[in-house]
Amino acid sequence: MHANAPAPAEDEIRAIVAPMTSLEGPLLPMLHELQRIYGFVPEAAVPVLADVLNLGRAEVHGVISFYHDFRDHPTGRHVLKICRAEACQSMGANALAESTLKKLGIGWHDTTSNGAVTVEPVYCLGMCACAPAAMIDGRVVGRVDQARMQRLLDEAGA
Amino acid sequence: MKDFIIPQFAPGDDRDMGTPARTGAPVSLTIDGIEITVPEGTSVMRAAAEVGVEVPKLCASDNMEAYGSCRLCVVEIEGRRGTPASCTTPVAPGMVVHTQSDKLRRMRRGVMELYISDHPLDCLTCSANGDCELQDMAGAVGLRDVRYEAPKGGALDNHFATRQGDQPNALYLPKDDSNPYFSYDPSKCIVCSRCVRACEEVQGTFALTIEGRGFDSRVSAGASLDSFLTSDCVSCGACVQACPTATLQEKSVIEMGTPKRSVITTCAYCGVGCSFKAELNGDQLVRMVPYKHGKANRGHSCVKGRFAYGYAQHKDRILKPMIRDQISDPWREVEWDEALQFTADRLRGIQQKYGRRSVGVITSSRCTNEETFLVQKLTRAVFMNNNTDTCARVCHSPTGYGLGKTYGTSAGTQDFDSVAETDVVMIIGANPTDGHPVFASRLKKRLRQGAKLIVVDPRRTDIVRSAHIEASHHLPLKPGTNVAVVTAMAHVIVTEGLFDEDFIRTRCDWDEFQFYVDFVKDPRHAPEAIEAMTGVPAADLRAAARLYATGGNGAIYYGLGVTEHSQGSTTVIGIANLAMLTGNIGRPGVGVNPLRGQNNVQGSCDMGSFPHELPGYRHVKLPEVRAIFENAWGVEIDPEPGLRIPNMLDAAVEGTFKGLYCQGEDILQSDPDTHHVASGLAAMECVIVHDLFLNETANYAHVFLPGSSFLEKNGTFTNAERRINMVRKVMAPKNGYEDWEVTQLLANALGANWTYTHPSQIMDEIAATTPSFAGVNYEMLEVAGSVQWPCNEDAPEGTPLMHVDGFVSGKGHFMVTEYVATDERTGPRFPLLLTTGRILTHYNVGAQTRRTDNVVWHPEDMLEIHPHDAEQRGVKEGDWVRLASRAGETTLRARLTDRVATGVVYTTFHHPATQANVVTTDFSDWATNCPEFKVTAVQVSPSNGPTDWQERYNEQAELSRRILPAAE
């Protein structure tokens, strides 16, 4: 969802999550679905989810805020995650991350001014053998050096 | 030797045992060399507490399930590896536990060190200083040093400092002071989750959560943008009580300091009758804390009892007696002697002129049993007539009649503990989450354990669906059709053969049952036949009836939505029939339970407040009953029943009733058809109001006698489960006298010569004259804490469950419940039905709660209206609307909601500015005259301000409240 798009309406959110109420443990699948559609979990979803699942608003908020992957604001068109776990750090991930952020002129969790890329930290992608690792829009990339990173950014239009 | 080691806990010891009590087979184990036997399922922590060994703990508390997060309560168990948490480890036979060792000490100290590394060390200026479990535990584990140090030039991450070096601390959260009664200071929080668990397990509101994870975890009320005030929080105080630190703290404690002494007493709000510890410094009340051993509330409370006690010190409170010749005069403050002489002269004069029966009394459902007993004694033994009535007339008089006729006693059959064993709960015409919140919390706990719920109510109340609970069936009937619905349920049970024949044959009158069956199986009572009239889908009604009849222990709880109707008594009888039909009487988890509106409605009925009954529900016509009181009081008692409230008012308008002593009751605001009440009062020559405030009735009074609050007197209240609870004097009466003393002064001014020096003497008189109270006395109550009547030779320890082996009346009586619709009908001019109710933060006419910070939640009465009805009338959310009925009209603001069905509107009656009872009619219950508050045909239309009547009334009220400055 675009950063400047109007906030999703309650009815729209209800229509998305309503078919999933019969799932076992439906809250997480609903949150994933909302994030898939909007790129984040809109604030307006909290009372709707609470109502649909008969939970307290606080409980829904507790679950959303527990998982770093659920966002409360829109991202850029592409999301780049750079691994900061131990194995990647030992292979120069910190320097890679620093230079990437510097190049884009943004900080962690920020989006480039043209709305193309959001950079987020991630703690282990399970790619320790190919460190340093990154992930762009769900696709993992290993042995990321400056050049490969530049290619990823170019592809994303940053 | 054991006796020397195991401390003998005093009764009333309310230490925290760590985890909840269990019932189960006995298990023996050894803890620190002491042998102990506890029920199976008990935690090691609790077992240790039983022998007086305190295991350090932070996240455990005995009103919630163990959580195992703080890791301070670790112990060593011989033969087991590691150091398990004692709160989550259940006892096992032969277990040998050590709660202290070098290893455990080191571990606990390490854990504590981590806690303290993220906690400010400002103990001396902290509001919890001296009442802080974190402080206590730091001492208990011997913490002497915190080794975590900031790196050179940097700072250690923490949540409590406002600044980190020269930068603002991004992790710091400011205090949340949005709730008027307590504050949330995140900087003191150790994230033990006790508040979150209390909100979920004890209160059942689910308003709190832990947001974030790991080091970022914080307690959060509601979602990310909420404060405590905007969240779902109902301000019950359970979290504040659970908090081990100063994070959630009463503002009164922050203001006044830690209380140093306490008095156990009983809340004076609703009929649940919660026990509280009034905590004080000197005679300054610092806070009210729910008392753990209170058998009605089991350590829980609601916003009213816990926090809304400030009215007792409110500046509006009148502390000096006042008199005036006419109600158009200003009030004149006088001394007690003058006021009493003035009153006595007037009353005697009226009696001489208009006859013995021209004066009467109204007893209060908010005063103590002893005070009520004296007021009715005043009319019977001093005025020499039976003109006594009580505000119970306008709420639960049909309960008295209906249950009396069917079961033989006019009281609920169960104690509140019974709800924990019920399988199907049916709530009719009651809104427990607002009206009886502490009972609602206990009910919700049971519902979360899997009990089923049926709600019969025109409005979708919170109990129908809220976090983690949902009614199986909500029958949204049209107001006024209770009898039809209840009879249809009986029809389903009878025609489908779901009744309990064994029970009926052994416990009930079989012939009456036959007669009843013939009546009820008539097809005109079928759910399908009444669907159009009641608006309840027949299939739902059938399913609900089947569930109640076959779902296990079935309990019915009902409120004023049943009684305040033209057919109130019929519905009560119908409910009693349902319970007998299904055998749901006489054991835990079942029964018929009226939820009483006021703290002492039960007691005021028991004490003979009704004009036809002497104390103990015995008819005044019976010579043997009169003889008991005639002997005790040395007077002759009038064998003629006296006047009910509506009759008193009618007689006043006719000119035959001229004097009224009204204690702790605002009949002008709480009784229906305000215009009629006003003209009745205006026609009297001596109206004596005995109250805390110049209430609405006092606008028509000639004498005002200042009353004392529940904090200022000794006595007893009887709650909805017949439990007689002690009310203890916390501070001296500000007005100089307890209310029973005032009544005695008035009686003596009339020449009665009463000589009570303590309410215990009045209770002794009650016990001597009233069989169901025969075994009650203050010494016994001091030891037992409370007792449920009947308490006499047969049941020296009281009676938690009634009708166990047989009904009080011998056999249970089935009675036919013919539905006779009310004369109040909707028509073209008044197409909507108005029903009234209560809201959580206010109580009755609001005289008390409006004078506290509870107005933050509910500053005015609102009219709930369905969006469809609103649209038809061009009414928008928040608009002023005119609410008119055949009796009168008022204005208030509208709230659009689908909680009410189309055709139904709803409001509360807490604010005198609205005077919702201006519109209610004077129709009343056929048997008991209980007014029909719950059904009024009305019309709603847009309006731009208060009605002429409201403005005139306000002018008159202002005029009649003038007080002359005291003579210099």
TrEMBL record, chain A:
Quote the record's cofactor note.
Binds 1 [2Fe-2S] cluster.
Q: Is the Iron keyword given for this protein?
A: yes
UniProt keywords (A-Z) are: 2Fe-2S, Iron, Iron-sulfur, Metal-binding
Q: Where does [2Fe-2S] cluster bind?
A: 83, 88, 124, 128
Give the cofactors, semicolon-separated. Answer: [2Fe-2S] cluster
Please give the InterPro entries that the UniProt record associates with this protein: NADP_DH_HndA-like, NuoE-like, NuoE_N, Thioredoxin-like_sf
The organism's superkingdom is given as Bacteria
Q: Is Cytoplasm included in the keywords of this UniProt record? A: no
One GO MF term on file is:
oxidoreductase activity
Which NCBIfam families does the record match to this protein?
PRK05988.1
Task: Write down the PANTHER family for this protein, in alphabetical order.
Answer: BIFURCATING [FEFE] HYDROGENASE GAMMA SUBUNIT, NADH-QUINONE OXIDOREDUCTASE, E SUBUNIT
What protein family is recorded?
A: Belongs to the complex I 24 kDa subunit family.
User: What is the protein name given in its UniProt record?
Assistant: Formate dehydrogenase subunit gamma
UniProtKB/TrEMBL annotation, chain B:
Q: Which GO terms describe its cellular component?
A: membrane; oxidoreductase complex
Q: Boundaries of each 4Fe-4S ferredoxin-type domain copy?
A: 180-211, 224-253
Recorded hits in PROSITE patterns, A to Z, give:
2FE2S_FER_2, 4FE4S_FER_1, 4FE4S_FER_2, 4FE4S_HC3, 4FE4S_MOW_BIS_MGD
Record's InterPro entries? 2Fe-2S_ferredoxin-like_sf, 2Fe-2S_ferredoxin-type, 4Fe4S_Fe-S-bd, 4Fe4S_Fe_S_CS, Asp_de-COase-like_dom_sf, Formate_Dh-H_N, Formate_DH_asu, MoPterin_dinucl-bd_dom
The record's listing under SMART domains reads: Molybdop_Fe4S4, NADH-G_4Fe-4S_3
Q: Which CDD domains match?
A: fer2, MopB_CT_Fdh-Nap-like, MopB_Formate-Dh-H
Q: Name one GO biological process term.
A: formate metabolic process
Annotated region (Disordered) at: 1-21
Entry keyword set: 2Fe-2S, 4Fe-4S, Iron, Iron-sulfur, Metal-binding, Oxidoreductase, Repeat
**Which molecular function term from Gene Ontology is one that the record holds?**
4 iron, 4 sulfur cluster binding
Q: Which residues form the 4Fe-4S His(Cys)3-ligated-type domain?
A: 103-142
Similarity comment: In the C-terminal section; belongs to the prokaryotic molybdopterin-containing oxidoreductase family.
Q: What is this protein called?
A: Formate dehydrogenase subunit alpha
Organism of provenance: Paracoccus caeni
The protein's gene is named fdhF
